[in-house]
Structure formats: structure tokens, C-alpha cells
Amino acid sequence: MKLVQGEKTQKELGELLHIAQPSVNRLLTGENLPGFEVILRLAEIGYNANWLLTGKGGMYLTEERSTVLSPEMQSLAERLGNYPEIVSTLREAIELREKLDRTKQELKMEFQRMKKK
Question: Domain span at residue 53?
Fold first, then answer.
């Protein structure tokens, strides 16, 4: 996380990640590990989630594209365009799927309740 911080203040990093400065401090000191939302936000701005989690690969998605992906996959990634937009779209899809699953569960419970009457 210190590499991500660079020359930003803890307050600036917190604003970028949408977390409070004390939370940034706990991340930087190693007291806490970054959660899903922090990793997702960093991926949205171009950081490689694999690097954030494991330290392997390039720090940025563009480095990862050129050093790890096969030429075919690199071509596909370039055609897909901007990774942050893809991450944002995937996040929306996951949220919609979770909402659908909750709705299905609620309908199932309602059906069971009506069936008992």
C-alpha cells in the first residue's frame, strides 16, 4: 500500500479510495489488509489486483497486459478497452445478480407461505 500511496497524503489516498484517513493509516501500517472494496477501487484506477494481493506481476494493469498475457489475450484485452470500465460493469452485474438471488429467495419464501394457507 505504501507504493500505491506514493507522494499522496493519507487524506488524499483516503479520498481516492473512499475510506477515512484512520483506515488508510491502518492499511499503511499493515494493521489491516485491504478489503474487496479497496482492491476494487484500486483496480478501477488501473492497479493490478493480482499484484495488490500477491505482489506478483506488474503493479499496473498495463504492465500486466504486456508481460503476462499471451499475444492473443493481449489483443483481446486491447479490444475490450479500458479495464476500469470493465471492472465497473462487472461490479454492477454482480450487484444485479445478488439482487436477483435475494428476490428469488423472497419469492420462494412467499410461495411457501401462501402454500401453507
Answer: 46-81
pLDDT tens-digit series, residues 30-75: 898 888 888 888 888 888 888 888 888 888 876 444 344 445 555 6
Looking at residue 67, its pLDDT comes to: 41
Number of independent structural domains in the chain: 3
Q: What is the largest CA-CA distance in the chain?
A: 65
Q: What's the whole-model pTM score? A: 0.49
CB burial of residue 104 (10 Å; 0-12, 13-18, 19+) = exposed
CB 60 within 8 A of CB 16: no
- Are residues 61 and 74 both part of a single domain? yes
13 and 39 both lie in a single domain: yes
Residue 47: strand, helix, or coil: strand
77 contacts 65 by C-beta, under 8 angstroms: yes
Same domain, 30 and 66: no
Q: Which residues pair with 47 in a beta bridge?
A: 60
Q: 69 — alpha (psi -120 to 50), left (phi > 0) or beta?
A: beta
